[in-house]
Write a structure and sequence with these properties.
The structure is a single chain. The longest helix is centred in the C-terminal third of the chain and has 19 residues. This protein has 924 residues and is an alpha+beta fold. α23 packs across α24, α25 packs antiparallel against α26 and α25 packs parallel to α27. 34% of the residues lie in helices and 19% in strands. The strands form 10 sheets. Strands 10, 11, 12, 13, 14, 15 and 16 form a 7-stranded mixed beta sheet that branches. Strands 24, 25, 26, 29, 30 and 31 form a 6-stranded mixed beta sheet that branches. A hairpin with a 4-residue loop joins β3 and β4. The chain binds one RNA strand of 85 nucleotides through α10, β11, β15, α14 and β31.
Length: 924
RNA sequence: GCGCAUGUGGCGUAAUUGGUAGCCGCGCCAGACUUAGGAUCUGGUGUUUCACGACGUGGGGGUUCGAGUCCCUCCAUGCGCACCA
């Protein structure tokens, strides 16, 4: 009766399914705990051993919380809309729905083998009509809302219409077109269409023209977080800036709350940092400079944004972005040719080139801007280093205080004004705020730090500037010119977007065989006239981006079958925030920000009772591959062992890690691996072919992928689970190393032998009363497992298990009372074995339904302890002391000790440091 | 360049609060049982030294009776951001 993990795991997995052991219900009489994994995109590649790391951690934590008496919600689902399935369909002719379903099924099979405690009755798939009905519904709520900056809340657009008709928009600056101002009378005089266009500029989900990231290869626009270094995140295709009509989410209105909300949640510092940087809040001023130019008449101003209004007397030039609207108006005829040439150059550079090589370029426009305080005329330049999308797309150049401005001035020989005295050395700019201002008119003698406020006050007085907060974050592009996503529940009639009534949701995605793009950069849905034309208008043919469905999925799990609401208030009030969210760092600025924003909007609109979705976020590390390398002597079919390769001119090739035992290559398998290697010869060292190794990403390309199925087949799911945890802290990146798994496997076999005599094939469990030593070993282990698990230190918990098993094994403890509690404590980490042991002990039902074993502290209490006694930190002797001795008693005992007296030579110590349970130190 | 994180045996790692550094596992060494072992079990294993001892947590400095832990500084690695005015 050896430890037959294959039979045991199969048996219990079937039993769990049959008895719906993991089904949970809303039950207000029980405390709840919500453990969530970032749901996967079901790709066709299948899982490697790195993927389940976070799932295993969350599974252990969920089971542990359940043993501790919580009603645990631990669901799983699929982010099943998205680009790759559509690309795959175009390349292979398999409809996205079909390939997605197949991938999900593979995925599920792999997951099931690991023995997770997901409540699959709550599974969601974002591409299900029953799910995306509510994605569309939430979109309509966002479309039907605006962000009231006065109340800092998402509010109904109907309320805004009422405000407009009674008071115009004086109190509510238009977030789209800031110059738009109208009175109540003017509002009433606008046509219906004009009114709708204005409202559109206030909506939280809105449609507008704007610069977007257009990816030609993917045939769609992308959000900023989907573009990395000028190329698409998916596929690495070039991305260009393009003006298009697109849907957006007005996430910028939530910027402040997205930053301040981080104080209320438990995310890692680096994660908070990333989000804060992405949002990029900065404080400064907007200043109007009067423009003078040969071609221009009065009244034109150049609006710049600066975070350093205190440096205004140091302005030596202005720079506007090449795309700035004033470029053409202010350029003088003398500079026209130079400007045209420069603009042509800028247009010829792709976004990618621009980012890759940062050259100092630019040209003078011929125009001047007037410094409002000293009347200096300042040349206005164009340069690509100024970004059109940030601030006003124009800056004031202060070379002595800004590195980039300094380089620019030097490059173009613009004279530099020094306003910071000795702080500026003439060689490098100095961005200090500590300098006392010079050459700065009315600011002379004032420290820079204090001057900003004075300048702003003066500007406001003069009506040519004001305090301004800016964000790096842009509104999020929300439409995609693709097929495999949620259709927008919008109909366009005479240029006005009409929301579909709720009763017509879901708006089903029609089946399409042909996924070619539609005309004029529209998506494939534009090719389907009888779908597109509807009710006297045309449907929106774009679809929603991948992050639409994932922005709220954690809510749907709470109430997955509800057909009359995305999630009932009853369910969301009970399950509330996600207590623990586990996933990778790659979603730091995409999914995490969007879902936080959606939660805030739904909260404002009264659909939720909380406005931060995730109470605690843990980012699991990535598991890398440990590749194996072989060395082929150039031009031959001979391979040289790693230790001898330096004597040859050899090329490095990857060998499949599955053909290598440790570092020793299975040459037979290698020869059979690829036709190329047929008849290969090997130059061996000590009779073995030793491979080289390298740590790199786990990828098919490097033949270093380890499939969890293989590991589970060979060692069992329980061993796999515990080994993944044993590898190191969950949050740390680490390489996979199959070798060490034996140790964990041995542990489980050792546990098995506490219960069963393998040779004689009988159960060893006895009813004898445990000894104090046995209780102590058990309780020490249980107490520490609990602590380790609660503080997410799963690797030390596994070590603790091993120590416990070693101790009980040494004590030959086969006693039922001890083993019962042992089995329960194992239920989170090795659930299959725990169930089997539970059954061996003659218990009914699932071990998961028993409470976490109470620790009887009296067995852990030590009455006396041997203390090292040190003089000035140096250990001199040891003393056995009663643990409940007072400090005074300790001192007396120590001083009475002969060895101590000898060392002290009759003198009294200055201080006696008594470190509880650790040591006693005498300071002399 | 800026920001954040991390540096401990041959390897993965451990070390409540500053309190005997190296738990647990891998690997390695020795042994037991075996026809056999890539099975199981026992013991050993930071460096150095015959030994007593000395040294030892990336380098240097500091605080302290006492530092892997706190402070300063330098170095290395990883991640994120990268013309955001």
């Amino acid at each position: 009766m050896e430890y037959n993990f294959r039979a045991i795991e199969k048996k219990w997995q079937e039993s769990w399914t049959r008895n719906s052991v993991y089904k949970v219900n809303t039950d207000p009489s029980l405390p709840k705990y919500y453990v969530l994994d970032m749901f996967p995109y079901p790709s066709g590649a299948g899982l490697h051993v790195g993927h389940p790391l976070g799932y295993i951690a969350s599974d252990i934590f969920s089971r542990h919380k359940r043993l501790k008496g919580f009603n645990v919600l631990h669901p799983m689902g699929y982010d099943s809309f998205g680009l790759p399935a559509e690309q795959y369909a175009i390349e292979h002719g398999i409809p996205p729905a079909v390939s997605t379903a197949k991938n999900i099924s593979t995925f599920r099979q792999q997951l099931d083998k690991i023995g997770f405690c997901y409540d699959w009755s709550r599974e969601v798939q974002t591409s299900d009509a029953g799910y995306y009905k509510w994605t569309q519904w939430i979109f309509l709520q966002l479309f039907g809302s605006w962000y009231n900056r006065k109340t800092q809340k998402t509010e109904s657009i109907d309320g805004l219409e009422k405000i407009f008709s009674t008071a115009g928009n004086a109190a509510h600056e238009c977030p789209g077109d800031r110059k738009l101002v109208f009175s109540a009378e003017e509002w009433s005089a606008y046509s219906y269409k004009e009114q709708q266009e204005i409202l559109m500029q206030y909506r939280v989900a809105y449609c507008g023209y704007g610069e977007v990231n257009w990816c030609e290869a993917l045939g769609t626009v992308l959000a900023n977080d989907e573009v990395i270094n000028g190329v698409s995140e998916r596929g690495g295709f070039p991305v260009v800036r393009k003006k298009l009509r697109q849907w957006y989410l007005r996430i910028t209105e939530y910027a402040d709350r997205l930053v301040s909300g981080l104080d209320t949640v438990d995310f890692s510092e680096s994660m908070k940092e990333m989000q804060t940087n992405w949002i990029g809040k900065s404080y400064g001023a907007e200043i109007d400079f009067k423009l003078v130019s040969g071609e221009l008449k009065d009244g034109h101003v150049l609006k710049v944004y600066t975070t350093r209004p205190d440096t205004i007397f140091g302005v030596d030039f202005m720079v506007i972005a090449p795309e700035h609207e004033l470029v053409h108006q202010i350029t003088t005829s003398g500079q026209q040719a130079a400007v045209d040439e420069y603009l042509a150059y800028v247009n010829s550079r792709s976004e990618r080139e621009r980012m890759a090589e940062k050259k100092i370029t630019g040209t003078f426009t011929g125009a001047y801007a007037v410094n409002p305080f000293d009347g200096r005329e300042i040349p206005v330049w164009i340069s690509e280093y100024v970004l059109a999308g940030y601030g006003t797309g124009a800056i004031m150049g202060v070379p002595c205080g800004d590195e980039r401005d300094h380089k620019f001035a030097n490059y173009f020989n613009i004279p530099i004004t020094n306003i910071i005295g000795s702080y500026y050395d003439g060689v490098e700019a100095n961005a200090t705020k500590d300098a006392m201002l010079e050459n700065s008119g009315f600011l002379n003698g004032i420290v820079m730090r204090d001057a900003g406020a004075i300048v702003i006050a003066r500007l406001e007085e003069m009506g040519i500037g004001q305090r301004r907060v800016n964000y790096k974050m842009r509104d999020a592009a929300f439409s995609r010119q693709r097929y495999w996503g949620e259709p927008f529940p919008i109909i366009w009639k005479d240029g006005v977007a009409i929301p579909l009534p709720e009763s017509e949701l879901p708006l089903m995605l029609p089946h399409l065989d042909d996924l070619r793009p539609g005309p004029e950069g529209e998506g494939p849905l534009a090719n389907v006239p009888n779908w597109k034309e509807h009710g006297g208008g045309v449907r929106e043919v774009n679809t929603m981006p991948g992050y639409a469905g994932s922005s709220w999925y954690f809510l749907r799990y709470m109430d997955p079958q509800n057909d009359s609401a995305f999630c009932s208030r009853e369910a969301s009030d009970y399950w509330n925030q996600v207590d623990l969210y586990i996933g990778g760092t790659e979603h730091a600025v995409g999914h995490l920000l969007y879902s936080r924003m959606w939660t805030k909007a739904l909260f404002d609109l009264g659909y939720l009772g909380f406005d931060e979705p995730y109470k605690r976020l843990v980012n699991q590390g990535k598991i890398g591959g440990d590749s194996r390398l072989v060395y082929r002597v150039r031009g031959t079919n001979t391979f040289v062992s790693a230790g001898l390769k330096d004597g040859y001119e050899a090329d490095e090739l990857h060998a499949d890690v599955n053909m290598v035992n440790g570092f020793e290559l299975d040459t037979e398998a290698f020869i059979k691996w690829k036709p190329d290697f047929d008849g290969a010869q090997f130059i061996l060292e000590n009779g073995k072919y030793i491979c080289g190794s390298r740590l790199e990403k786990m990828s098919k390309r490097y033949f270093n992928v380890v499939n969890p199925d293989d590991i589970v087949e060979r060692y069992g799911a329980d061993t796999f689970r515990m080994y993944e945890m044993f590898l190191g802290p969950v949050e740390q990146d680490k390489p996979w190393d199959t070798k060490g798994i034996e140790g964990v496997h041995r542990f489980l076999k050792k546990v098995w032998r506490l219960f069963v005599d393998e040779e004689k094939g009988k159960v060893l469990v006895t009813d004898a009363e445990p000894t104090a030593a046995e209780w102590k070993a058990l309780y020490r282990m249980i107490k520490k497992i609990d602590e380790d698990t609660e503080r997410f230190s799963f690797n030390t918990a596994v070590s603790t298990f091993m120590i416990g098993a070693n101790e009980l094994s040494d004590l030959k403890c086969h006693k039922k009372q001890v083993l019962e509690k042992f089995a329960v404590s194992l239920a989170a980490y090795a659930p299959h074995m725990a169930e089997e042991l539970w059954q061996i002990l003659g218990k009914e039902g699932s071990v998961l339904n028993s409470p976490w074993p109470a620790v009887e502290e009296q067995y852990l209490v030590e009455t006396s302890k041997v203390y090292p006694v040190a003089i000035n930190g140096k250990t001199r002797t040891e003393l056995s002391l009663s643990l409940d001795a007072t400090q005074h008693q300790v001192e007396e005992l120590v001083l009475a000790d002969q060895t101590v007296q000898k060392w002290l030579e009759g003198k009294a110590p200055k201080k006696v440091i008594y470190v509880k349970n650790k040591m006693i130190n005498l300071v002399v």
